[in-house]
């Protein structure tokens, strides 16, 4: 039987002294209230109300069990309230600082249609992993090798001047080749992870560039400023180059891509981001469609 529903009807009728008024208080039809109380009485094996009078008067047994019924109804109401709050509790997700505001807003809107309320915290790769470990966020878009990731974001280099070739070979940046100052490739914090940075450094050494010609910037803004002020190049995605108004080309010696997976404290959160929200997350990352 519906013990909570029966107790709710019982408490409401006892408070009003009337089956009709009690049913209205419980927001159920009067016949439903009567059936629920009758079922409760059959369950207990005792009468709760004396039906020989016009008013719903409690029996001695009814008076004895009323306090426990009131506690059960209060607990049920508290449970429903807590469940509603838990359902609306934001799911905090650590995302790359390179994610666009519009794309994140579209992701949040798409998630809301699924009754998932997302909040975002922009952080660098190492910090995102730590935020999940310390439970400061429920999930993070983790930087992983592209072959291990759920999403892949192709990388190339971009500069102010449109390059003449369809690809940029890093060997053309060798000192003395152009007769001008040594051009540099700037690595932004999002790509300052071993599986990306170290591959670029190996190519740097293989083609004979000076160590300083591949540099890690403190921020994307700082890296972009160096590129705007010179003939330097920024290691970035196509989407980032477009946002900055730079001309992007793939790297001739290197097929490079950011990889992203999901780290989460709950498996259901990770699965939701990987599957139902896969396309919207990919747009935030600038992943290839």
TrEMBL record:
PROSITE patterns per record: HTH_LYSR (PS50931)
Keyword terms of this UniProt record: Transcription, Transcription regulation
Provenance organism: Amycolatopsis eburnea
Entry superkingdom: Bacteria
HTH lysR-type domain mapped to chain residues: 1-59
The keyword Transcription regulation is annotated on this UniProt entry: yes
Family membership: Belongs to the LysR transcriptional regulatory family.
Record protein name field: LysR family transcriptional regulator
GO molecular function: DNA-binding transcription factor activity; transcription cis-regulatory region binding
SUPFAM superfamilies on file: Winged helix' DNA-binding domain (SSF46785)
UniProt xrefs under InterPro entries: LysR_HTH_N, WH-like_DNA-bd_sf, WH_DNA-bd_sf
Leader sequence segment: none
